[in-house]
């Protein structure tokens, strides 16, 4: 099959569709273009997914703050007051 393609490529030089590199492979020029288009398509798809993810992160619904936490004043305990009252009585 490769020999047939090689003969066809050699006999039909005017079209220039086939390459015959020194490795002996028969390669159609459209394969390179097809691979390049596929890579570009995949790259654009990744970029679009990244853009979509960033949009989702920006537009993410976040829970509103209920209110600022206010620390309650310390409760009066007998231990802390007893030292003050003992010093006041003297």
Automatic annotation (TrEMBL):
Coiled coil region boundaries: none
Basic residues bias locations: 56-65
A GO molecular-function annotation: transferase activity
Region Disordered: start-end pairs: 36-90
Keywords: Transferase
Keyword Transferase: yes
Biased composition range(s): Polar residues: 79-90
Keyword Coiled coil: no
The name this protein goes by in its record: GLYCOSYL TRANSFERASE FAMILY 1 PROTEIN
């Amino acid at each position: 099959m490769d020999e047939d393609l090689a003969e066809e490529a050699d006999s039909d030089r005017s079209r220039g569709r086939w390459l015959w590199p020194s490795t002996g492979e028969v390669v159609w020029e459209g394969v390179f273009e097809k691979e390049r288009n596929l890579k570009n398509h995949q790259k654009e798809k990744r970029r679009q997914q990244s853009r979509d993810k960033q949009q989702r992160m920006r537009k993410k619904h976040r829970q509103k703050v209920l209110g600022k936490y206010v620390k309650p004043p310390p409760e009066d305990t007998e231990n802390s007051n007893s030292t003050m009252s003992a010093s006041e009585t003297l």
